[in-house]
Design a protein that fits this description.
By secondary structure, the protein is mainly α. It is about 65% helix and about 0% strand. Strands 1-2 form a two-stranded antiparallel ribbon. The N terminus is likely disordered.
């Protein structure tokens, strides 16, 4: 169902303004002006290439680089499924879910990537090449140990080491992303600049699909036995191991770096004097944006808008896996709805945001109740699936999963596009790149902090009791509510060690049920509280969003 990996709200690169050389006019002579007009008309008619002519190689390169970015992201989505099968706690899942934070914080070092480079080698290649090499080498180095870290031979996964490893992956990928966004401005011709964002969206989706859907499917023995092995060749292991998959992509990263080295359209201009001053100015621009009351209100809304569905979004895939739904089925379900999300984004963009009087924040707000409804229905589906844990899941529940996933995807895609359109609508043109990146960063943080909190809260509020076998004289534990208070206080109840009894864990308080209900109630109250403020933000005049109008002290 809803992937626990939050979508990446794309920072918009600072636009490059390309102007035609001015033609000198001669004293307002009408004949001269007519000649010049017909000259430009001839250029427009005969010299402008159409379509992708001249940009095929650039588009292919960008698709490759953005696809490679999606590989570490997809692997970070697969790891929680592998850890869940090993029996890790929700607290451990919450720890690992922080690995995507570098993409939410890359604004902090983006000005550095933009300002420091080697003019001889190329402004963007200075950063892309070493990042690609480091990711490739790290994938190869980690491949030999990753199966042990994930919990080979029945041991528990080393969550701390896995988290550190993927934090490094995300940091390197985020830095590469900053440089590739800039490269898109120079390798594409002026008429096709917009294709950079398209390559980004398609490339990352392909990379995530390969490392999430494809890997999980071929890592599952049942899937491989059903579709790719004969009855006599059936095995209890998948065709892909995590180590082998990472090793393969490590070599792909290294080999693809050769393509980047020979890119010719990179910038080779000298570094202007005063790099430190440029960095200082970039951070001053960010400070100007934050000082606007309208941006502060919008930031508060973006940081808290996911509270209503964070628990269900984060825990649902893990609970379905725990209830016996094969991970390859969950991965295939995600792949089926991927084109639905892309088509929805295209439709909403054309239908609602192509005119000059678009109100994207109003569309976002009116979609929010449907997002909450889909969250509530998904919660009920998880409870229904848990009833069939340990047995074959009825086909009608699989059908319900598909419908709910499509519904949630439509809502999420609509809200995503609406926010992006609103950011573009209100950004101050004087500092457009910094302004858009600031808003995108805050939107990313809204998902980055709520997902770990949701997973951790489920672990904190889940109370289990080890029920001893018949005939064992173990003393009864305190009531469940007392043990819940102990857990919330960071303590736990320990049974008498002198009594050795075999027992079975039984859940007395389901943290997922408790926190999902609380989360959805918070979402309803949040929506009621922000409804009017959000509409007021949409109705503000353009001057309310101009960072250049902030009063200087």
């Amino acid at each position: 169902l809803n992937s626990h990996v939050a979508p990446d709200y794309r920072p918009a690169p600072r636009p490059v303004r390309e102007q035609m050389p001015a033609v000198k006019r001669s004293g307002g002579n009408p004949a001269d002006e007519e000649d010049q007009s017909s000259l430009h008309g001839a250029e427009d008619k005969y010299e402008k290439p159409a379509g992708l002519k001249g940009d095929y190689a650039a588009v292919a390169l960008l698709l490759l680089l953005y696809t490679l970015q999606g590989i570490p992201m997809g692997l970070s989505g697969s790891i929680p499924f592998l850890m869940q099968a090993k029996g890790v706690s929700m607290g451990a899942q919450a720890t690992f879910s922080t690995v995507s934070w570098p993409f939410s914080l890359k604004l902090l070092w983006a000005p550095l990537v933009d300002a420091v480079y080697s003019p001889a080698f190329g402004r963007r290649k200075t950063w892309i090449v070493p990042m690609q090499l480091l990711i490739g080498l790290l994938l190869l180095a980690a491949a030999s140990r990753i199966d042990d870290l994930i919990g080979a031979d029945g041991t528990l996964p080393d969550v701390g080491s896995l988290t550190k490893l993927f934090l490094v992956f995300y940091f390197l990928a985020a830095t590469q992303d900053i440089a590739v966004d800039g490269l898109a401005l120079t390798v594409l011709s002026a008429r096709n600049k917009e294709l950079g964002a398209t390559c980004n969206a398609i490339g990352q989706s392909i990379g995530y699909f390969l490392a999430y859907t494809v890997f999980l499917a071929f890592n599952t023995p049942e899937f491989c036995n059903r579709f790719f092995r004969t009855a006599g060749a059936a095995s209890d292991e998948g065709m892909f191991t995590l180590g082998g998959f990472m090793s393969f992509w490590g070599w792909v990263f290294l080999l693809s770096t050769v393509c980047v080295i020979f890119v010719r359209r990179d910038e080779h201009t000298s570094i202007p004097e005063g790099v430190v001053a440029q960095l200082r100015d970039a951070y001053k621009e960010m400070l100007l944006v934050v000082q606007l009351p309208s941006v502060r209100w919008l930031g508060l809304i973006l940081l808290t808008n996911r509270l209503g569905f964070a628990v269900v979004d984060g825990v649902t895939p893990l609970r379905l896996l725990e209830s016996g739904v094969p991970k390859d089925q969950l991965a295939l379900l995600a792949s089926v709805v991927m084109p639905v999300g892309m088509a929805c984004q295209a439709f909403v963009s054309v239908r609602y945001f192509s005119g000059g009087k678009a109100q994207p924040l109003r569309v976002w707000l009116k979609t929010f109740p449907y997002r909450l409804i889909s969250t509530a229905l998904t919660f009920l589906l998880v409870k229904a699936v848990s009833v069939h844990a340990g047995s074959e899941l009825p086909s009608h529940l699989y059908f319900a999963m598909l419908l709910l996933t499509i519904g949630a995807t439509i809502c999420s895609s609509t809200m995503f596009v609406a926010l992006m359109a609103f950011f573009a609508q209100v950004s101050d043109p004087a500092i457009g790149g910094t302004y858009m990146t600031m808003l995108n960063t805050v939107a990313n943080m809204g998902a980055a902090w709520t997902s770990p909190l949701a997973l951790a809260s489920v672990g904190w509020t889940t109370v289990k009791r080890c029920v001893p076998e018949v005939g064992c004289a173990a003393p009864p534990p305190p009531p469940a509510w007392k043990r819940l208070l102990l857990q919330l206080g960071g303590m736990s109840w320990t049974a008498d060690a002198s009594v050795d009894c075999a027992c079975t864990d039984v859940t007395e308080i389901d943290g997922f049920t408790c926190m999902a209900v609380v989360s959805m109630l918070v979402g309803v109250l949040w929506l009621l509280a922000v409804w009017k403020p959000v509409l007021r933000l949409q109705g503000l005049p353009a001057s309310s969003w101009l960072a250049t109008h902030v009063a200087k002290p």
